Amino acid sequence: AHRLVVLVSGAGSNLAALLDAHADPAYGARVVGVVSDRPGAAALDRARAAGVPTAVVALPDFPDRASWDRALTEAVAVFTPDTVVLAGFMKLVGAAFLDRFGGRTVNTHPALLPAFPGAHGVRDALAYGVKISGCSVIVVDDGVDAGPIVAQEAVPVADDDDEETLHERIKVVERRLLVDVVGRIARGGLRVEGRRVVLGG
Ligand code: GAR
């Protein structure tokens, strides 16, 4: 099966959805490793519970960002992934990482890019006052949530939403979209033609 390495920083609900999906051989992909920048991430417990090996590469343990990025790259490379999935990974990957895994790394983001990139997509969309937001899966490049868009889905904003309620509504859709997109990449490949992405599977 197509080998997935999942990068996480937080709760890991998107990882959990991938772990549910990979249990079915027909899915075509397996999570073979999980790497976090945060030793305390709950996502690591989900990986361990599923019997998936984990690694932690924490930025404060390194003298600078470039050496952290090289260590992260090595930690991911150990698992020999076909595709790397950033699922709530809250750091930007660097040049060493993109040299090795560029073009086959995707990220999920809780807004309709190119609107509201960055660490607070849900909060920023609410503050702007949009009535529709959603989620995006993108190919990771050297920008901030600026890579080619693989798939998106819209989610309505309710008048009484706060950041938490809107994020939860988005995450329900996001998990399904991410699982679907990653399965399609595994089964049929991912072709990037300039800004346009064509999915197989
Ligand atoms: C997800 O909504 C993901 O899109 C977001 O963090 C959440 C992680 O949830 N990522 C970003 O905002 C990246 N800029 P999870 O840990 O439960 O999967």
UniProtKB/TrEMBL annotation:
Pfam families: Formyl_trans_N (PF00551). Its EC number is 2.1.2.2. PROSITE patterns: GART (PS00373). Pathway: Purine metabolism; IMP biosynthesis via de novo pathway; N(2)-formyl-N(1)-(5-phospho-D-ribosyl)glycinamide from N(1)-(5-phospho-D-ribosyl)glycinamide (10-formyl THF route): step 1/1. InterPro entries: Formyl_transf_N, Formyl_transf_N_sf, GART, GART_AS. Keywords: Purine biosynthesis, Transferase. (6R)-10-formyltetrahydrofolate binds at residues 65, 90-93, 107. The record marks 145 as: Raises pKa of active site His. Residues 3-182 form the Formyl transferase N-terminal domain. The active site is at 109 (proton donor). N(1)-(5-phospho-beta-D-ribosyl)glycinamide binds at residues 12-14. It catalyses: N(1)-(5-phospho-beta-D-ribosyl)glycinamide + (6R)-10-formyltetrahydrofolate = N(2)-formyl-N(1)-(5-phospho-beta-D-ribosyl)glycinamide + (6S)-5,6,7,8-tetrahydrofolate + H(+). One of its GO terms (molecular function) is phosphoribosylglycinamide formyltransferase activity. Belongs to the GART family. Catalyzes the transfer of a formyl group from 10-formyltetrahydrofolate to 5-phospho-ribosyl-glycinamide (GAR), producing 5-phospho-ribosyl-N-formylglycinamide (FGAR) and tetrahydrofolate. This is Phosphoribosylglycinamide formyltransferase. The lineage of its organism: Bacteria, Bacillati, Actinomycetota, Actinomycetes, Micrococcales.
